[in-house]
């Protein structure tokens, strides 16, 4: 591993609706810095140990039987003193919010201000081992099983009083940011995958969260935005110009999308606009 970066993290491991699993095989003397982005992360060691400094404040070494919960937007400086195999679990905010809403746990006295917590809990370790075993298996329904285990892990973390309440406003803030990005870059060569990356989310998690909040997937939403904009542009530009301006190099594809949404081709729509102008 040459760089402990986000793209590398997302290129390996298993991802489900509620959990992203990332594996690392770290050599002795390896050093780097990484961030927890917008999610809570459970950091575990299978073999070896890590020396870490959290947010330039807390420095310690942890090993196999300890679990580190990193809060969102934490910065970690890492140093490896012996060959180490690590597994990181990124827990979706949606799952934390659902557990918060469903379970009967007193949350008034939670100590949630620390950016990290060191946890020693045999129950959590046992479930983590089941997640790792299932992720590496050929079980056809392993994503379903992993999400069940993710609920169990999150429940135990709640019992340790480690999570604050996550409101629906927090869950939807990323969706609003995504919509703003789409509108801001509607004329640029930007994809839904680019939007997800800018929000530090995987495409799968972003698409699931977006559809849950809006009702349609982000590709459909972005296409609808472009087609609404196309109606405006067709008032004074040709079909070819509008197609290229909105990033559709395949004009036939643009025409088909427009006709599917509005029942007429862009050319027919433009001609109808011209008739209305002349009649007025």
TrEMBL record:
Pfam family, one: AraC_N
SMART domains, per the entry: HTH_ARAC (SM00342)
Keywords: DNA-binding, Transcription, Transcription regulation
GO molecular function: DNA-binding transcription factor activity; sequence-specific DNA binding
Domain HTH araC/xylS-type: 176-272
The keyword Chloroplast appears for this protein: no
Protein name in the entry: Transcriptional regulator
Provenance organism: Anaeromicropila herbilytica
Lineage: Bacteria, Bacillati, Bacillota, Clostridia, Lachnospirales
